[in-house]
Amino acid sequence: MKILFVCTGNTCRSPMAEYFAKKYIEDNNLKDYEFDSAGINARVGQGASSEAIEVMEEIGIDLSGHKAKMLREEDLKENDKIFTMTNNHRKVIQDMYDHDNIYNLKYSIQACENCDILDPYGFGIEKYRETRDEIKHTIKELFTKLKRD
User: Fold this and answer.
1) Please, what is the Cα angle at 71 between 120 and 52, to 5 degrees?
2) Catalytic residue chosen out of the listed positions 43, 116, 119, 129
3) Which of 7, 26, 35, 116 has its Cα between 20 and 30 A from that of 63?
């Protein structure tokens, strides 16, 4: 299964989700999964934010080699599931392209009122830690759900 995580700039949330998912499948010896990430408004080639790199290093994940990518229509066709960080990201993509494999990451796990994983950009290192932990928890729940389905 090919999964793509999408946020705005592809420098914080979606790379954290991508790299955590890769570590999760490695740690749990799972097969048949591929992950990538992209942004709906990315500066192509930009590295992950220094705060995202720092908070992921704290849990043993290296984001230093990440380079931002812009979401392309081909990405929607090449991936089995697209998980966005916010409902707005999902709506923007659905308005731009006609695909039905696009889901809000948190809502896909459990229906909730505020299912957005908010952007930590500009809010300091502690907000990045909170976002990292929220993504980590959500990705673990996603794998539980994927194994059931």
Assistant:
1) 25
2) 119
3) 116
